[in-house]
Amino acid sequence: MTPSARVQAAIEILDAVIASARDDGPPADAIVSGYFKARRYAGSKDRRAVRELVFGAIRRIAERPAGGRSAMLAVAQDDPELSALFDGSLHGPAAIAPGETAAQPGLVPAWIEGELSPLVTPHEYPALLERAPLDLRVNVARLDREAALAKFDGATPTLLSPWGIRVPSETRVDQHPSYLAGEVEVQDEGSQLIALACRPTDQTRILDLCAGAGGKALALAAAAPGASILATDTNRARLSKLPPRAERAGATIEARLLDGGREAEQLAEYEKSFDVVLVDAPCSGSGTWRRNPEGRWRLTPGRLDRVTAIQSRLLDIAAPLVRPGGTLVYAVCSIIAREGAGQVDAFLGRHSSWIAQDTLTTIGRSDGKGRLLTPACDSTDGFFVATMTAP
Prior knowledge:
alpha/beta; Rossmann fold; 13 strands
């Protein structure tokens, strides 16, 4: 591909990413992969260059742009070499017309700024879009962290999680013998800390209510192999990934698919049964923008309203399942106030006999009755976590 053809390819991919963000379709990574699967002639250098153009544009623009060309023009404004590639050549983009409008550069959409936790000030915004590091969680039921560090070139221990190691971003983890042997899993350090907040022991009975593909359930099982863990979700495709992951890790986890809207009915038999209920709730994903920067283009006020309503409902489903004196751990990968501290305040307003506890006192920053982790301050994804004790 010529340099101009790479720019045109990036524009076409950005058009697809914009449409997918609007229609809640597949993520940008999948769109890039699909584009090149249909274009086998593109070499590895072409794919790498186009990908960098695509994600450079996504990171540069906060609001969803009108189209891929306007997004790429926003990048070209400060890059004369890129601007020159809008040359009208064969397979390249048309020349820039006088007065042609480029998308407005920015980091955080204006409407979201007012929704952020007050702890997340503008000087933190650039870190929200930096490329995320590659963190692994050591399966400490099989291997200690020091041994795991020795198995990965360039690995360093994470600063906050006792189970984590950070490896070079180019590491092919899925082909590494330690991964294939179930000794490590890819998991951001912040996500590991959510499991740590549950304080699992071998005698603990745990419900992971929104387990998804089971990352936190696996962390809990590794930390406390004798714990009894029930992992539930309403998404069959995501939950189906847990059993093979658990088998690889040597973990004993019961997985149960629930019907959306009938969770309380289907879990009624477990009333006051669990020592710990983890609600890792669906959320805006604002804490993971550095991994999925087009998430800023997907989030709308209406979508935020919907996920906060789901979070509130899930907390109310979880509460009756916690035994007296047991623990409800609430977590979201979000830096938005009403998904975090605001959601906990609302829960405690509805359940006044519950008591908030700070179980991660040395980690993150105090945010209302919970803790907030952010890329700028903690070098993790953005997470809010709160712990509450049942009466």
